[in-house]
Amino acid sequence: MGGTVLLSKHSIGVGDRFAHQGKPQLEACGMAAERGVEVIPVWNKSNREHTIIGSTPAGTRAAADEAVRASGWRKPYYVDADHINLKSVDNFMEACDFFTIDVADRIGQPAEADALRAFVEGHRELLGELPVAGVALPFRIERDFIVLVANKYLAAVEEAGRIYRRIEEKKGKGQFITEVSMDETDLPQTPAELLIILAAVAEEGIPIQTIAPKFSGRFDKGVDYVGDLAKFSEEFSDDVAVTTFAVRQFGMSGNLKLSVHSGSDKFSLYGPMHRILKKFDAGVHLKTAGTTWLEELTGLAEAGGEGLELAKEIYALAYAQREALCAPYASVVNIDPARLPAPAAVEKWSSEQFVSALRHDPKSAAYNSSLRQLLHVGFKMAASMGARYLDLVSGMEITIAKNVTANLFERHIKPLFIGE
Ligand SMILES: [Zn+2]
């Protein structure tokens, strides 16, 4: 066993629903390396995704290892057990070395009285005026506020501790990366709340390297951010400042950074995020989700012939089952049914028409965010086709790979990590 596994400053969570695109994804990280920026890939896949597709964490691990071997990637890479809880963690134990502990369903469960009292008493240093370097105005924290936040999050953090210790027992201390996520909840956390949550995480002894708060605004799947950009920027900046402060104040891991569960393609956030990270000399973990699957679909449509036919068929199936497909993602999809073209109309489309409706180019008049979101959650349709889908994906590998690499490098890595 080596030393403690530490996540690099810049890392990107890449989804790969059908586990065929590891190589072109690595190619995008390789292009960043050529530009002098190290971006470490992490393959994330949640229990929900595995269940819908019928895949296993072992399959994700095998695909990642194989892609790394075939590409000659020499830097670290990880496989993330995304959004696990005490019930699902065991499934991921063998295959994963990055664990995103999700305790959102415990948020709001009142803390036990003694634990609450001890926590509040133990953090009198936070009371009153608290200057945090990089935050414009000092926080003003009162006892009642700590009680309120602790009552909302302490029980959740204790649960995270139970999950962390279970993983540590199986995998060994320092042998994996720990993230705590609180993004799948109703309300965003303010920077002052994040500070108190980090105090609780430190006290619970969870050596997190990344934390995923919920930010203001909508983070719908596969489409751009909807919300107040100035407000997000201020919040993100203050959150970065708070993580830096927490490292010193609570003795947390020196490489603690924010993890942004983006739901993919939050293009308008990348510019402000890049500037803020530069200002603080801070790192970030950007989690993208299923857009690699959409690049597969784009590549199939672009290749024409059978590929285009299959893409149209998947659209028609998804169209017919829209409500069922959207149900597991209800809070993060925002489809306008009136903007969905009828399958009979799509049937007549050329490659170019299909690709330009699907491809996420907000400046293009043909881009259709409702169609894109429907196909985003429509991966179940492709999964149900089994070998028929996967054989065609393999057959059209070159066109697809080009789309996967360009999407990841040009639209994500470049604006966020390189700043172009
Ligand atoms: Zn998430």
Please explain how this structure is put together:
This protein is an alpha/beta fold. It has helices at residues 22-34, 47-53, 57-71, 89-92, 113-122, 143-171, 191-203, 229-250, 267-280, 291-303, 305-320, 322-326, 343-346, 351-358, 369-377, 379-385, 387-395, 397-418, and strands at 10-14, 40-46, 78-84, 98-102, 128-130, 139-141, 177-181, 210-212, 257-261, 284-287. The strands form two sheets. It has an eight-stranded parallel beta barrel, surrounded by five helices. Strands 5-6 form a two-stranded antiparallel ribbon. Strand 3, helix 4 and strand 4 form a beta-alpha-beta unit. The chain is globular and about 70 Å long. Zinc ion binds next to loops.
Summarize the structure.
With 420 residues, the chain is α/β, with parallel strands linked by helices. Helices cover 52% and strands 11% of the residues.
What count of helical segments does DSSP give?
Answer: 18
Largest sheet data: 8 strands, parallel, barrel
Order of helices and strands: EHEHHEHEHEEHEHEHEHEHHHHHHHHH
Q: Segments where pLDDT lies below 50 for 5+ residues?
A: none
The end-to-end span amounts to 39 Å
Structural class: alpha/beta
Shape: globular
Please state roughly what percent of the residues sit in beta strands, choosing from under 5%, 5-15%, 15-25%, 25-35%, 35-45% or over 45%: 5-15%
Radius of gyration: 22 Å
Strand order of the largest sheet: 1-2-3-4-7-8-9-10
Total number of beta strands: 10
